[in-house]
Write a structure and sequence with these properties.
It is built from 13 helices and 15 strands. By secondary structure, it is α/β, with parallel strands linked by helices. The chain has three domains: about 160 residues, AICAR transformylase, duplication domain (Cytidine Deaminase, domain 2, 3-Layer(aba) Sandwich); about 150 residues, Cytidine Deaminase, domain 2; about 50 residues. β4 and β5 form a beta hairpin.
Length: about 400
């Protein structure tokens, strides 16, 4: 048996705490820092997500995790000029794995504050330099270049958590956990999410591009490692919004949809034109953008407030402008970890530009849900597989 002692569990009063392997060696090494209980929960869930994405698409993948659910996940596709501005990415060439993490964190920069980063590929200097400037708790990857590790070791006064995982490690087929002193046992969820799960198209429109298939796979794999109930919006190989841990399916759809709307509003010309004061901290800038977009914009535009953030007082982004901009969004994909019980989920998703849906099916109202999709010319696949995660 090998073990690693931790400072405490989920809360400081929960001692002792450790991670351990009853048989064999731990498949990971702590290269820097001292990760805690929740850090390792984020690390191991996020690693499974990016590993599955790489296997399903063949592309580098990254995730930004908070409280055992992804704030964002993305594939290593190139960044456009607008992406670079919205995600505050550096100029010049960037590696695919760096692009993957920048896009994953850019999915929801507010929720990624203090995240755990996960990479499907070895961490390079491009990724480390970007991560070094962000507020983050730690990172897990299958390896690190010497330059990347040296950069990460300077973060958080030398205490940044860096974990290396054995990429060949496979868990035992049965997993166990204890709740209230009672042991639960189940088979490890080794379900392979692949394009074969998208073959049952139930709508009149059956056209699925390769890009849309990759987006649906990204949504489904993200959901597999998201606390249920959950719904995920995706576009261009990047999550736009994840609705996690809600008791009602429509609340998942609304929460994720609202995040997807904010993602799109960050690309509005008025937002791109915001002029921040020099040397503003990244979290302050992200908070200011969130407030500017939201109904609470008066808080950031009030006299005495805006001068601390902006060089010039911005014009208000009106509700009419927001609605008009959101109406231009299109080509979005949505995944759901369980069936849509009513057509209202489809209607809400459509308002955020959704064209493609993947869900298990199996509701007694499947016909109503399909009819709602057909009315809007949407494509929907029944995967036949539920993806609950707790």
């Amino acid at each position: 048996m090998t073990e690693l002692e931790l400072k405490y569990g989920c809360n400081p009063n929960q001692k002792p705490a450790r991670i351990l392997m009853e048989h064999g060696e731990l498949p990971l090494q702590v290269l820097n820092g001292k990760p805690g209980y929740i850090n390792f929960m984020d690390a191991l869930n996020s690693w499974q997500l990016v590993r599955a994405l790489k296997r399903a698409t063949g592309l580098p993948a990254a995730a930004s995790f908070k409280h055992v659910s992804p704030a964002g996940a993305a594939l290593g596709l190139p960044l456009s000029d607008v992406d670079r501005k919205v995600f505050f990415a550096p100029e010049g060439p960037l590696s695919p794995i760096a692009c993957a993490y920048i896009r994953a964190r850019g999915a929801d920069r507010l929720c990624s504050f203090g995240d755990w980063a996960a990479l499907s590929d070895p961490c390079d200097a491009d990724t480390a330099r970007f991560l070094a400037a962000e507020v983050s708790d730690g990172i897990i990857a299958p390896g690190y270049t010497d330059e990347a590790l040296a950069i990460l070791k300077t973060k958080r006064k030398g205490g940044y958590n860096v974990v290396q995982i054995d990429p060949d490690y496979e868990p035992e087929p049965v997993e166990r956990r204890k709740i209230f002193g009672i042991t639960f046992e189940q088979g490890y969820n080794n379900l392979d999410i692949s394009e074969s799960m998208l073959e049952k198209v139930v709508t009149k429109n059956t056209t699925l591009s390769q890009e849309a298939k990759h987006d649906l796979l990204l949504a489904l794999i993200t959901l597999k490692y998201t606390q249920s109930n959950s719904v995920c919006y995706v576009k261009d190989g990047q999550t736009l919004g994840v609705g996690a841990g809600q008791q009602s399916r429509i609340h998942c759809t609304r929460l994720a949809g609202n995040k997807a709307d904010i993602w799109w509003l960050r690309r509005h010309p008025k937002v791109l034109g915001l002029q921040f004061v020099d040397k503003i901290r990244r979290p302050d800038r992200d908070n200011a953008i969130d407030l500017y977009i939201s109904d609470e914009h008066d808080d950031v535009l009030a006299e005495g407030s805006w001068q601390k953030i902006f060089k010039v007082r911005p014009e208000v982004l009106t509700e009419e402008e927001k609605k008009s901009w959101i109406a231009q969004q299109s080509g979005v994909s949505v995944g759901s970890d369980a069936f849509f019980p009513f057509g209202d989920n489809v209607e809400r998703a459509r308002r955020s530009g959704v064209q493609y849906i993947a869900q298990p099916g199996g509701s007694i109202r499947d016909d109503q849900v399909i009819e709602t999709c057909d009315r809007h010319g949407m494509v929907m696949c029944f995967t036949g597989i539920r993806l609950f995660h707790h």
